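Run log, item B.
One chain of 313 residues. Sequence copied directly from the ordering sheet:
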Amino acid sequence: MSENTSTRYVSRAVLVALLTLVATSAMAQTIQGSATFRERMALPPAAVFEASLEDVSRAGARAEIIGRTRLTSPGNPPIAFTITYDPAKIQSNRRYSVRARILVDDKLLFTTDTATPVITGGNPTSVSLMLRSVGAQTPPPAAGGKPSNSTPSSPLAGTSWQLVKFQSMDDTTLTPKDGTNYTIEFADGGQLIARVDCNRGRGTWKSPGPSQLEFGPLALTRAQCPPGSMHDQIARNWEFIRSYVIRDGHLFLAVKADSGIYEFEPIRNHSKGLRPSDSPTRALARRFDGSLRSRGSLARSLAALLPALRFMR
């Protein structure tokens, strides 16, 4: 083969490679973004920044990853990033959003807690993200109004919470009819007391490190809860909760694999509907006694039941 022939082959190969590169670049599109957080702190060298473009169209289903980026040692915020994606995967009637997080030694340090819509529906292809710390913060007072010092390594010890809502990563929100039917009490010694709608149970909990949370198996009663209950979902998610954050007085529990976040608020009245010295039977007698005052002769004839109710305390 002559030198000229070899040169022509090389030139053609280079040209094909360049054309392929140009075509690929023309096909690919990008999301441009920046991410920051409010805390005044420097990220350690081991920090890793991750951002993903997700299809969040299917309610109740896990989001599909369309594109992602990963930056090691991203430096201090704002962190500039680019997510490259294939436009052929984008459909105009679907919804897409960007999420991001920062990890250190595979432990979650910062994350977005809201979805940022992009691309379709008139949304942009550039985003500015505010990440929230998942480090432990000062908890609200424990039940009874006094802080618990029995487990100083965890701000959860001695606190009690009731459910506000569940927010999935595809923007689906589930709100209980009555949040007081879904409660968690982080008792001393790693013990846990829970109410999950029509069932009550006990279990264990531990916090191996800041923002980390692990639940043991929850032994629940086995009543059949009514339609619309969040009981079955919570029971399924229970052992997959892996991290928490306390922000603005609310507790946020994150389910692993980015499935969603449970939001709780402090229990205002730890014994709802009961006076501090009441037993349930005393409270029943008190309510029954009050109802008798507003009823007729039938109610008066039932008044004989009151001594028995009061005796059952």
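Observations after the first pass:
- Confidence is low (pLDDT under 50) at residues 22-26, 136-152, 270-313.
- The helical segments are 3-27, 231-237, 280-293, 297-301, 305-311.
Flagged for discussion on Thursday.
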